[in-house]
Design a protein that fits this description.
The structure holds two protein chains of two kinds. By secondary structure, chain A is mainly α. Chain A is built from three helices and three strands; from the N terminus they run ααβαββ. The N and C termini of chain B lie far apart (83 Å). Classes of the chains: A mainly alpha, B alpha+beta.
């Protein structure tokens, strides 16, 4: 198995996900299998292939620097679970 | 044991584009909260960002002005982290292929010149603003989300607070000249992060560094570097190890405190931004932007020394900001007396700006008005001292110097006939002085000159008056 339980807990913490002990074991197995499968690519000779920097073959899609109408404050806050004083309100953040 | 401070800086600069980096919302500062937003900068699901062409142009211009290589191929990446000022939960930035690499900026501290290496410059979006005003939560203003930034990352080449300041000032001057940003620190258009470590002098290996984020003035930059270097040296002397961490600088308290252990770079789980396509810049595009670069401070300073024969000091002061240099150049174009203009701009104008709460950006006199005043002084129509008074009046009223001189009757009396009548009377009234002069006491001339100045309320042209006094006294003695 290429993925340890510690790896899973570490990544879960970065993604702010919480798992039970059993789930961590199961995920280590499942994610490990996915990684092992992807690992088969390492067996290929890529020395003559240009590195893929980006998956799209398109380049230079730009916008002109022109102002367009914005949402109103009410529209912007319409989906906010909580708002106050024209702002989105989130649980207190300690600096 | 002698210690050495090692500093690398990251400078964030908001670009002066009209719209945000990935959407068409305005970037204007100081608007009502959450009035400059759209689904893209609010991070709504399913929206597609499109890169602002001006951001690419400005970043290229900044890179060229800071002597960087401009990448033929660069791309955007996602930097993932959770913080409520970032609605998407990732910042769109550049990771392994930034738009500019390998620049250099020359600085000078205490007459020692030094080159500071620039590792890279990348483009990214600014985050929103958190307001800690609510009793039971934190408020978020999204207006700043998506304002375009460039981040300039230096090599660990700086060795003192003074060098850090000199470098930051140089970068600000250069970028202000190129017009890519107003670099207004009070509006957060320019912010500094400082990476600092200590090592024994002569040691090649870098010590463990701490990072201080979002220093937003030169003063904060200097004080934060001084405080943190002292703190680290004390820790090391005590035999403690420095912990790699982010520290928060409190400018009011004048101290820093630990914020969090610095997450390793791979914690951000950077990956190529699938919604934005790569940026490919052809040499012709880069050449065109290079050819359009304005004359930069260094070149301008050299030209002022060569062309206008100004001392190095004057040339340095006049080229510190683009607006000052433009004012000077407009004045010189009207009146080819660079040293006289320089003297007045360096000595007389700054205190008046301060007194009237103005800066060179919104100065209340024009170069043409200054030139008109200097011509009056040069042609002896008014004395230098009167000129200073007139300048003061010009600042507060915006009137032309000629009008002020006329209205207040400040014109110097150079008319020999007029002066002769006054002097004839003064000499006749003071026979004792004439006697003294006859006896060889030349000091009496000074007394007579003083009397003439008193009679003319200081408006007599001193040189003309002295000649006439000598002639009249000679006549009386004869």
């Amino acid at each position: 198995m290429s993925l340890t339980r510690e790896d899973v807990t570490y990544v879960a913490n970065l993604a702010r996900l919480e798992f039970s002990e059993d789930e961590v074991t199961a995920l280590a197995d499942q994610l490990g299998a996915v990684l092992d499968y992807a690992e088969t690519l390492s067996g290929l000779d890529t020395s003559k292939i240009k590195a893929t920097e980006h998956v799209l073959a398109v380049q230079n899609v730009f916008r002109e620097d022109e102002i367009k109408p914005c949402l109103t404050n009410e529209e912007a806050l319409a989906n906010a679970p909580e708002s106050e004083a024209g702002c989105f309100k989130v649980p207190r953040v300690m600096e | 044991m002698e210690y050495e401070i090692v500093i690398g800086m990251e400078i964030h600069i908001e670009l002066g584009t009209k719209t945000k980096i990935f959407c068409s919302c305005p970037t204007e500062f100081g608007q009502d909260e959450n009035t400059h937003t759209c689904p893209v900068c609010l991070g709504m699901p399913g929206v597609l960002p499109v890169l602002n062409e001006k951001v690419v142009e400005y970043a290229t211009r900044a890179g060229l002005a800071l002597n960087c290589e401009i990448a033929h191929f660069s791309k955007m990446d996602r930097k993932n982290y959770f913080y409520p000022d970032l609605p998407k939960a990732y910042q769109t930035s550049q990771f392994d292929l930034p738009i500019c690499t390998g620049g250099v900026v020359g600085i000078e501290v205490d007459r020692v010149k030094k080159d500071i290496g620039i590792t890279r410059i990348h483009i990214e979006e600014d985050a929103g603003k958190l307001l800690h005003e609510s009793a039971d939560g934190t408020l978020l203003d999204v207006n700043r989300c998506g304002v375009p930034l460039i981040e300039i990352v230096t090599e660990p080449d700086l060795r003192s607070a003074e060098e850090a300041r000199a470098f930051a000032e140089k970068v600000r001057n250069i970028l202000e000249y190129t017009g890519v940003s107003d670099c207004k620190m009070e509006q957060g258009s320019m912010r500094f992060d400082v990476n600092l470590s200590i090592r024994e002098k002569g040691c090649e290996v870098l010590g463990t560094r701490t990072e201080m984020k979002n220093l937003n003035s030169f003063r904060a930059l200097i004080r934060a570097v001084q405080y943190e270097s002292k703190r680290q040296i004390i820790e090391i002397k005590k035999g403690h190890t420095i912990i790699q961490e982010t520290r928060k600088w409190d400018d009011t308290k004048g101290s820093s405190s630990s914020l969090r252990s610095k997450e390793e770079a791979h914690d951000y789980r950077y990956f190529p931004e699938p919604d934005l396509v790569p940026i490919v810049l052809e040499p012709a595009y880069i050449e065109k932007i290079k050819s359009e670069l304005p004359e930069l401070p260094e070149a301008k300073k050299k030209r002022y020394i060569d062309e206008y024969k100004l001392p190095e000091y004057d040339a340095g002061v006049l080229t510190t900001t683009g607006v000052t240099a433009r004012f000077f150049e407009e004045a010189v174009a009207l009146y080819n007396e660079p040293k006289q203009i320089s003297n007045w701009m360096m000595v007389e104008i700054p205190p008046l700006l301060k007194e009237n709460e103005l800066s060179m950006e919104n100065i209340s006199i024009t170069p043409a008005q200054l030139v008109a005043l200097l011509k009056l002084v040069k042609n002896n129509e008014i004395s230098g001292n009167t000129g200073k008074e007139v300048l003061k009046e010009m600042f507060s009223t915006g009137k032309n110097p000629g009008d002020i001189v006329k209205e207040k009757g400040l014109a110097q009396m150079s008319d020999a006939g007029e002066l002769e009548a006054i002097i004839e009377k003064i000499v006749s009234d003071n026979p004792k002085s004439v006697e003294d002069i006859g006896a060889g006491n030349d000091k009496a001339y000074g007394f007579l000159t003083g009397q003439v100045m008193k009679a003319t309320k200081g408006k007599a042209n001193a040189q003309v008056a002295n000649e006439i006094i000598r002639a009249v006294v000679a006549k009386h003695l004869a």
